[in-house]
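Field log, afternoon session.

UNIT: design team B
ACTIVITY: writing a sequence onto a fixed backbone
BACKBONE:
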């Protein structure tokens, strides 16, 4: 490697890692990421607020159902209360809502189902509404079955739950399908690449603009070529991004082993495994651990590092060219949309690729270099054919080399241009200039 480029890489790397923001995000990044998964699960375990619903049940459909935990029904005698009196009682009681079930003519289930009203003083809770609808639908279904001469109890006893075990026989081997886990890994890997490309690509663009506006670049280009300076900045910042990711990865692996050793606790104690009637605790945890053990993480991490690195380098060259073309960040908006469009499209296709990783949409977007770093990572956990993976990598590297050359031509001219916002036509001319 050119010694001047190496010096620029070292300067960019050391400058970035010494910043307080790097240390803060390196520490807080895993914590915030864990919080995105842990906090929703924790909040889901919190008991819901106690609610009481006043019920005016004229046909007695709910049969004085007392509700469920944290949701109770307080019935009013339909012989003593009209709807207006029930509404007045509800307002004075301060309860959560008033459920009115009209009798109708002939106790027609369809009529009753269309005219049930729930009065509340605010927006109704979704789980509460779903529970009430479920209870009433069960009653109406039973009434309709009776009119057809079918005993609802007999029908209920015929219901059977089915659990299908899926086996993947792709490539001549039989393995249990782990689709939900693979979808989760693919989504997280693709989204991380999307996030890192935007964050660190934007940092390169801002850094180039700052050096250009402060005229530091005029001193630097007197001793190094503009292309050497661009490559040094790109690779230096890529090293910072990789270092930060590796720290997060080590932290995540360490957290996994801590959970395996301390959180499982007695669940991993096999001293009594031979005892009669022994049943392991925390079956779900063991199932999760066994599932994780079946994932080929070295292969997935290797692919992630490749697509992360070259995807970043591809877009970093473009961001550097944009930064060299303008004098202030507000002038970058005209260029940011066409650059961001493939990344946004990648996130949209990512969801589709997770659902159908072998489909034509997933295939083509995982081959096109501007979208392949994100979309291919959605397919990698599902065992992509080697020729498709190799073709995607080859096209990505080739496009990176070509785009770096084009960006270097733009960077070499634009870095010394001041006071003028160039049009696209003028930028195309810069590519043909002889520096």
């Amino acid at each position: 490697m050119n010694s001047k480029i190496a010096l620029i890489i070292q300067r960019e790397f050391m400058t970035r890692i010494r910043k307080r923001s790097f240390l803060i995000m390196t520490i807080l990044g895993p914590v915030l990421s864990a919080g995105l998964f842990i906090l929703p699960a924790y909040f889901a375990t919190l008991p819901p607020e106690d609610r009481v619903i006043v019920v005016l049940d004229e046909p007695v459909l709910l049969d004085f159902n007392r509700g469920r935990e944290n949701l109770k029904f307080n019935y009013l005698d339909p012989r003593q209360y009209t709807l207006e009196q029930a509404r007045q009682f509800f307002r004075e009681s301060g309860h959560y809502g008033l459920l009115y079930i009209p009798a109708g003519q002939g106790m027609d289930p369809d009529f009753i189902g269309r005219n049930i009203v729930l009065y509340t003083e605010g927006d109704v809770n979704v789980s509460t509404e779903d529970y009430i609808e479920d209870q009433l639908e069960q009653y109406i279904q039973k009434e309709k079955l009776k009119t057809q001469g079918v005993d609802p109890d007999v029908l209920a006893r015929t219901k059977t739950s089915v659990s299908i075990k899926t086996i993947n026989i792709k490539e001549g081997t039989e393995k249990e399908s782990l689709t939900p886990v693979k979808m989760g890994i693919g989504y997280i890997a693709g989204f991380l690449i999307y996030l890192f490309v935007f964050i660190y690509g934007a940092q390169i663009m801002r850094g180039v603009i700052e050096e250009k506006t402060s005229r530091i670049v005029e001193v630097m280009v007197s001793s190094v070529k503009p292309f050497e300076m661009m490559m040094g900045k790109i690779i230096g910042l890529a090293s910072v991004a990789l270092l930060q990711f590796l720290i997060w990865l080590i932290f995540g692996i360490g957290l996994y082993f801590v959970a395996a050793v301390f959180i499982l606790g007695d669940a991993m104690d096999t001293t009594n495994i031979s005892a009669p009637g022994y049943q392991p605790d925390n079956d779900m945890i063991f199932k999760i651990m066994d599932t994780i053990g079946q994932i080929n993480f070295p292969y997935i991490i290797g692919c992630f590092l490749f697509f992360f690195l070259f995807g970043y380098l591809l877009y970093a060259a473009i961001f550097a060219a944009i930064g060299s073309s303008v004098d202030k960040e507000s002038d970058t908006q005209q260029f940011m949309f066409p650059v961001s469009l493939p990344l946004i499209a990648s996130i949209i296709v990512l969801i589709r690729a997770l659902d159908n990783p072998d489909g034509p949409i997933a295939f083509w977007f995982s081959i096109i270099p501007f979208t392949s770093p994100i979309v291919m990572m959605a397919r990698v956990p599902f065992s992509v054919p080697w020729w498709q993976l190799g073709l995607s990598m080859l096209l990505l590297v080739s496009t990176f080399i070509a785009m770096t050359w084009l960006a270097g031509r733009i960077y070499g001219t634009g870095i010394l241009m001041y006071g003028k916002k160039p049009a696209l036509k003028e930028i195309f001319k810069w590519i043909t200039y002889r520096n």
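LOG NOTE: Strands lie at 51-57, 67-68, 71-76, 97-101, 117-120, 167-168, 175-176.
NEXT ACTIVITY: expression trials, pending approval
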